[in-house]
Amino acid sequence: MTLSASHPLMDGRTADSPLIAAYRGKTPSRRPVWFMRQAGRSLPEYRKVREGIGMLESCLLPELASEITLQPVRRHDVDAGIFFSDIVIPLKLAGVDVDIVPGVGPVLGTPVRTAADVASLPELTDESLAPIREAVALTVAQLGSTPLIGFAGAPFTLAAYMVEGKPSRDHLGPRTMMHADPETWQALTDWAADASGKFLRAQLEAGASAGQLFDSWAGSLGLADYTAKVAPASARALDHVRGLGAPLIHFGTGTSELLGAMRDVGVDVVGVDYRLPLDEANRRLGGTVALQGNIDPALLEAPWPVLEAHVRQVLEAGSAAPGHVVNLGHGVPPETNPEVLTRVVELIHSVEP
Ligand code: 1CP
């Protein structure tokens, strides 16, 4: 299982990029930075091309998805593109009745709650992923030596939407199911693991140079439940892409107590939200992996001197880790002034790696 010789990671385009060097624990030529949700509503050029086109529809139009992926790279000089798509796209492509409702998020026509519901989930075929492969190929042809990061939702975060049928705060539905009906839980998370794994694999094979597993809501779990009921499915998702040679990143929010367990599903990089300083995260992980994070998105609205001091602190704390890729502790808030993001990138690039 390897990437083709003409893949950007194999043909010399991205292997020595600052992003991939830092992920691999080597010294990069400059401090790499990208932002979760760097594509999206904070950019006027995004709002313009999305006019009148639904969210999921825009993800499945290869030229549009590619253009949206490239917009923040052009504008901010970030060190990576993150593929414009969504964690529920594999559900949509499998034929699950799901949509993204503006101002709400993913909503399913019928929530998935019983053994029969799970048994009737359609399988995601490789053929249905063609628009994803096409969008990735168009994108990497334009990105040159800037790596593209592929991503997928982790099984717990996907299952959280599938069981509740919509976004929720406490994720009570999935947390009940894992104990009340462990067999259905296992079947559901296995299904989600395979759907996400195939989605991520399609992106890596088509040209993405790294892959990030988003377990955004894992922080609602204690360590015991995470380890017993969730981590095995996350490992199963990544089994689809191990051995390709592309660095793998694992991110969640509210996961300060789970960092070691998240590393142990088998990744090269752990993403840290804004709650824990990176030197402390590195101490908890024993200096075993590179870190990604963790500018507090709330500070993007603060006066520049306050934001600058915070960014410098993040860089200092991140120096403790074997490798550090700067990011936010969660996604770019939609109200963010994009000029602030560009200025943050300039600041980070001005500091010695
Ligand atoms: O119409 C719009 O513009 C809707 C907003 C939007 C966008 C821009 C949604 C709906 N998804 C996306 C794109 C997206 N989603 C990306 C791509 C680009 C980038 O980062 O620049 C990525 C990586 C995701 C992944 C995603 N979707 C996650 C994991 C990351 C995270 O932010 O925690 C999650 C939890 C989702 C679900 C989702 N999709 C959309 C929304 C608003 C949500 C969250 C809903 C909730 O609060 O539960």
From TrEMBL:
Q: Where is this site: Transition state stabilizer?
A: 86
Residue ranges of domain Uroporphyrinogen decarboxylase (URO-D) in the record: 32-41, 149-165
What pathway does the annotation place this protein in?
A: Porphyrin-containing compound metabolism; protoporphyrin-IX biosynthesis; coproporphyrinogen-III from 5-aminolevulinate: step 4/4
Alphabetized InterPro entries for the sequence = UROD/MetE-like_sf (IPR038071), Uroporphyrinogen_deCO2ase_HemE (IPR006361), Uroporphyrinogen_deCOase (IPR000257)
Domain of life from the UniProt record: Bacteria
- Localization: Cytoplasm
| Gene3D superfamilies noted in UniProt | 3.20.20.210
Coiled-coil annotation reads none
Q: Which reaction does it catalyse?
A: uroporphyrinogen III + 4 H(+) = coproporphyrinogen III + 4 CO2
Q: Does Chloroplast show up as a keyword for this record?
A: no
Keywords of this protein's UniProt record, alphabetized?
Answer: Cytoplasm, Decarboxylase, Lyase, Porphyrin biosynthesis
* Major place of residence: cytoplasm
UniProt similarity note: Belongs to the uroporphyrinogen decarboxylase family.
Q: How does it assemble?
A: Homodimer.
What is the protein named? Uroporphyrinogen decarboxylase
What is the phylogenetic placement of the source species in the record?
Answer: Bacteria, Bacillati, Actinomycetota, Actinomycetes, Micrococcales
